[in-house]
Amino acid sequence: MSQLAEQKENLIAPGHNACAGCGLVLAARLVLNAAGPDVIVTNATGCLEVTSTNYPYSAWRVPWIHSLFENASAVASGIEASLKAQGKLGKVKVIAQGGDGATADIGMMCLSGMWERGHDILYVCYDNEAYMNTGIQRSSLTPFDASTSTSPSGKASLGNPTLKKDMPAIALAHRLPYVATASVAYPQDLEKKVKKALSITGPKYLQIHSPCPLGWGFKTALTIKSAKLAVQTGLYPLFEYENGQLISVRKIAKPQPVEAYLKDQLRFRHLFKNEEGKKQIEKIQELANQNIKKYGLTG
Amino acid sequence: MKKFWEGSQGVAEAVKLCNPEVISAYPITPQTHIVERLSQMVADGDLKSEFINVESEFSAASVILGASAAGSRAYSATTSQGLLLMAEVLFNLAGMRLPVVITCANRSVSAPINIWNDQQDAMTVRDSGIIQFFAEDNQEVYDLHLQAYKMAEDPDVSLPVIVNMDGFILTHAYEPIETITQKEADEFLPPYSPDRKLDPAQPGTFGVVADPNWYMETRYAMQKSQEAAKRVIKKITREFKQKFGRFQGDLIETYRIEGAETVVVAMGSLVGTLKDLIDEERDNGKKIGVLKVRCFRPFPEEEIREALKDVENILVFEKAFCLGLGGILYHEIRSALYMSSCRPNLKCFVVGLGGRDIPKTSLKKTLDSFGPNLPDLNFVDLKEEQIKEHLYVPVS
Amino acid sequence: MWLQPGKLSNNCKKFMPRNKTYIAEPGSSVGNRTGSWRTEKPVFLNKKCTDCKLCIILCPDGVVFAVNKVYQANLDFCKGCGICAEECPTKDIQMVREVK
């Protein structure tokens, strides 16, 4: 039976200032509950950190440290080294966390260093696809054509012109023993992946799709539905790599057209206004199709 | 036992005595010999330490931040560009009150790039809340590292410490060093045991958000700890003298300052040259002495004021200056003397930037041509023809 | 330590030790009653509930709990996002506008 529902006490307490319906804090709560209390967590600057640690209130029931925006992985490396020197590393696990901006942009240097050195740390990237905490600015994990405050749609722009940086591929290039993607829409799958990652020694990477009602522009109750559609369209494939081999994917019984996912988010609303937008939707559908093919998501 | 060691070897041996559990290393001239030697000690099993080769100085500081927060004694070494790159983390280390020790092999800052000695790098982080020492010679460097950990970890202080040593001049110079045994070091410096650390047995949230209702008091508390550090430094240097018989000053050191009409002030290895010069001058009957500022942060205002009272002429020699203002040590001393009744002839002499050699003759010339009508900011051995030939300098 | 929802007002008195810098105590956020945010609250009908526990799992704030299979939300903290009602497979939870 999944441990999630039996959890006696959430390791992230309520009373934090995350938005109602926040996908990120849900993902974090699921990760921590799956990891258990014998962890030390480092966190990058971002929504999760700012909403949960406004002194004197802290939502964290585990030892937790925040240093700077870009160094959650480097601080975690130091903690792991300290635990190793104290002989506690097997018993206490180290988890480093950050949003998509902290992971794929400003934190790339420290992250790459931590992975290359092979520290026994699980890195969790909460992918809400923009710099949400500072007001929904574009990051390198912002999807194609999404409208953000620094890549807005307008008469001369269709939103973010670049594709999502393929962080799992970068993780695989560092020869990580375990690389996976997950989504808040599938909490049992997320829990399994966290537990499996923590059972492996070495650097691990887990990227969790975490919808943001405020930043993406949908009603707070629809967080899970939105996350589910991202997976069901093939735009956010859920997979697991172990030692460089693709060992599992979440199959899609009946792939949804990308419109189903895009139409209820304000950040993609501009694509439904004219012919040009329609062409962009076709491009996005092509991206989904490529994922379906690459990972064998159907059949 | 006396050993004939390169300065950087002295540092490595001193750090070894302190038994840090985590060392992070990134190469940058001229500190690289320090981390290379530490790395060899770990490789040979002589030092039980987690030696982390990081991918930048920023990560070097972040690694020791994490290690210290998790309860380990931690160490790193850097200089110049590296110190500037880790500046963000240095403020973080001080604000989180983590007692790490960093050796800075003082080197000039880019641009233009220059790998030789001056003290501009350490000066740029003087506001960070980190305690800063400047060592005169390699014996002092060796002794300072043991004292530094004891100071940093004192419960009234709990601030990181930077031990500054002039790059190349001290790091690469071979000097005889009186060494300390591991047993003696362990008696002087007990193992690190913080009252709070990252531990599932006693969880806590470190690095919180402090909104306008909460932030200011943390900075006040740090100021109070810096002030307490003055007392702690005096206590620890006395303890060190008692145990090992060596005393190189606590916050300051005065040399032949009794009855002096003129005092030269400096930090770092330059003090050694000045002491030689002052010996000659005293032999010629001049009433002259040296004031060595050993601890730059916390700034020993009262001690300097006390040492310089009744002195007519003060020459502050500096290996850095604040562009747009003037001498740094000079202005701090000037402010300190504002509170005293005397009004000496106080001038600043910027010297040796970018590693330019400082011969005793240049210092003597400066001394001889000193007078009350000099400008406040002077440059020793400035090459006027070079300026005319190679640079555009606007008329003031 | 099992934190009993409903006894939270007593837990607001927390011991804050003096550290060198601010170190927040674990779970002290329970002093911040985010229940004041919401405009709608979840009403658990407990009629068609199949005990799937999705509401407990999917609540971002983790405030849904069950006592003897009777499901409820901790109204001191519930922000009224509506995810539990939206995701309940038997539609046994309704979001009701709160008038204060």
Q: Mind explaining what this structure looks like?
A:
The complex is a heterotrimer of chains A (299), B (396) and C (100). Chain A has 299 residues and is of the alpha/beta class. Chain A has eleven helices and ten strands. Chain A has helices spanning 23-35, 47-52, 72-86, 100-104, 108-117, 167-173, 187-199, 213-217, 223-232, 258-262, 275-295, and strands at 39-43, 64-66, 93-99, 121-127, 153-154, 157-158, 178-183, 204-209, 239-242, 245-249. In chain A, a hairpin with a 2-residue loop joins strand 9 (239-242) and strand 10 (245-249). In chain A, helix 1 (23-35) packs across helix 7. With 396 residues, chain B is of the alpha/beta class. In chain B, helix 7 (138-153) links the parallel strand 6 (131-134) and strand 7 (161-166). Chain B starts with a strand and ends in a 6-residue tail after the last helix. Chain C is α+β, with helices and mostly antiparallel strands. Chain C has a domain at 34-100: Alpha-Beta Plaits (2-Layer Sandwich). Chain C is built from three helices and five strands; from the N terminus they run αββαββαβ. In chain C, the strands form two sheets. Chain C has a two-stranded antiparallel ribbon. In chain C, strands 3-4 form a two-stranded antiparallel sheet. The radius of gyration of chain C is 16 Å and the shape is elongated. Chain A binds chain B through residues 37-40, 42, 49-50, 53-56, 58, 60-68, 70-71, 74-86, 92, 109-110, 112-113, 116-117, and chain B through 21-22, 24, 48-50, 52-56, 58-59, 62-72, 74, 88-89, 92, 96, 198-200, 202-211, 214. Strand 2 (64-66) of chain A pairs parallel with strand 9 (205-206) of chain B.
